[in-house]
Description:
The protein has 133 residues and is an all-alpha fold. The protein has four helices and no strands. The longest helix is centred in the last third of the chain and has 31 residues, at 101-131.
Amino acid sequence: MAVKWTPDLSVGVERIDTQHKICFEKANDLFQAGKSGKSKEKIAETLEFLEDYAKKHFRDEEAYMEHINYPGLEQQKIAHRKFEEEVAILKHEFQQSGSNINLIINANQMIIDWLINHISNMDKQIGIFAKKL
Ligand SMILES: [Fe+2]
């Protein structure tokens, strides 16, 4: 499955949109690797990226929401912490037992959920709110 960032997902700030685009690109890399049977090699890199991405990106996004007095900030913070926890669990699992089919499936599922439910739904609302300011 190819997933793509589209302008209707814009949150109104270029820096955050760019971070979202990168997340879509990384997801595509991982799905592509899966197709060619290279998921195992890619999974460590993806987990590293997600950890790093989450830290920087959530900090920027939350600062922006605070700045515009976004009413859904608390809900977003809860979702962000949950994502960070999920990444930490996967990373721990990976360190314990290496890459296996379950871990690959879980990582793929987590990223798809994030792209569809979070960026394309929750984060999109930030942009809709920001446009009315
Ligand atoms: Fe978010």
